[in-house]
Structures are given as structure tokens and as C-alpha cells.
Design a protein that fits this description.
Elements lengths: L12 E7 L3 E2 L5 E2 L9 E7 L11 E4 L5 E5 L3 E7 L3 E5 L5
Antiparallel strand pairs: 1-4, 1-7, 2-3, 4-5, 5-8, 6-7
């Protein structure tokens, strides 16, 4: 299933895009996305009608052991969460 096919979600479901980038060690070894740790934060792409605390575009902190992975590419992973699995909404502060 591809993320492009999802047009709406049910109940309190939230679709989050987790960033996956190529990591390079100090020695120059490239670590592929499949060997990297799962990211704990991402961007909300789509929300269900009963979602109350998050909106599309929010940066969120998620429970890494929850969710259903929908699609993965070289640069992103899309995971479907219940709203309760979102631990926090992140905001940027000016330094």
C-alpha cells in the first residue's frame, strides 16, 4: 500500500512521516536506513475526524513501539498511529 492511496482516516488515527536519512559515521561508513534506529519524531501528514490534539503539519514525538508502518522510501517512513500514541507536539523556540 502506498501513502498516495490514503485520502482519509478513521476515528483518532494520525499518519506521521518519520524522517530517515543516510547517516555517515566519522570513519565515512554509510549506515543504510534499514540499520538505523527508529526515529521518535516526525511530521503529521493526515488526521482522522476524531483527532483533537494534533493537526496536519505538527511536529510530534511518538512511541517507537506503536503504530503500523504503511510505506517506506529511501528518505521517509510513514506510520499510522492512534492519537494516544503521540507523546507530545513539538514547537520550535527562538534562541
Amino acid at each position: 500500500m502506498s501513502v498516495k492511496n490514503i485520502t482519509s482516516l478513521t476515528a483518532d488515527r494520525v499518519l506521521v512521516e518519520l524522517s530517515v536519512g543516510q547517516q555517515i559515521t566519522r570513519a565515512g561508513i554509510v549506515i543504510p536506513p534499514s540499520a538505523q534506529e527508529i526515529q521518535q519524531h516526525g511530521r503529521v501528514c493526515l488526521v482522522g475526524p476524531e483527532t483533537k490534539n494534533v493537526a496536519v503539519g505538527d511536529q510530534v514525538l511518538v512511541d517507537v513501539h506503536a503504530g503500523l508502518e504503511i510505506d517506506a522510501t529511501r528518505s521517509s517512513r510513514y506510520v499510522l498511529y492512534k492519537e494516544a500514541d503521540i507523546q507530545a507536539v513539538l514547537t520550535e523556540t527562538e534562541a
